[in-house]
Amino acid sequence: MNLNLTVAVVIPSYKVCKHIQSVIEKIGPEVDRIYVVDDCCPDGSGDFVVASCHDSRVSVIRHTENQGVGGAVMSGYKAAIEEGMDIIVKIDGDGQMDPGLIPDFITPIVIGEADYTKGNRFFDLEELRAMPKLRLFGNAVLSFMTKFSSGYWNLFDPTNGYTAIHSDAARHLPFSKISRRYFFETDILFRLNILRAVVIDVPMDAKYGEEVSGLKISKIMGEFLVKHVRNFFKRIFYSYYLRDMSLASIELPVGVVLLSFGILFGVYQWMWSISMGLQTSSGTVMLSALPVIIGLQLVLAFLGHDINSVPHRPFHRLKRFIKSGKKRT
Q: Which pTM does this prediction carry?
């Protein structure tokens, strides 16, 4: 199945000494290299792995300062790219991600259907009963915001950290710009959309043990909202004005202007008529309603175009085609 493609696994390591050994032991023979990134772990996860693990595939990368999960993954990506790995899988070291699913994550990349795969715990509705209700609601809200900001309307469960990426896509990511902390998984989707990389979800079960997640959705919702809005405007500018222009490039600004004018004008006239004790004329009502109707239709038309514009041609296959064309010439 590997078709001569080499596979690496990156494991960010921070306070996971209790589980990381068993995680490594469960990684199958389809994996060629394992990078354990000790993110300045106070428990000395890196030293623990060196002392207890005898798997020749394992290499420990140490950070002198804590860089967060994003920084740890980026270090693993860089090491894998430097050693010529073709596919890079990222799993956590706390035992909540089953290494036995690695073939499921790399197969779409191997057969050329995707550049990046990520886990989705929302496929099996029965399994969702194990997920805390607040976490379930928070993930649903974050997923909806991610669809807007990243442009991947076909994805769900954006904070899922079980991922795999083709090295051709990984090496084109702006490592210095990607968020280092909890926004990492979401931010990388935005970056992949700018590359027009194909991303698909891989169904997986929701697993919760005795580990306590450091991600408190109630605390990061505001921060995530600000970053989602920032990424949304960046993506719209890059995709619809800087890199390409289409009818949707006109629909969005015209629709927003008409919708805003209609709402503001209608509210102003409504308040003025109340204060003056006068009845609003039908002409004034139409002058407010018509821009709202037309503006809403234009915005919805833009959203329809955006939803249908989800990347579908794998980036790494396109790069391979370009390279082979240059060799023939």
A: 0.86
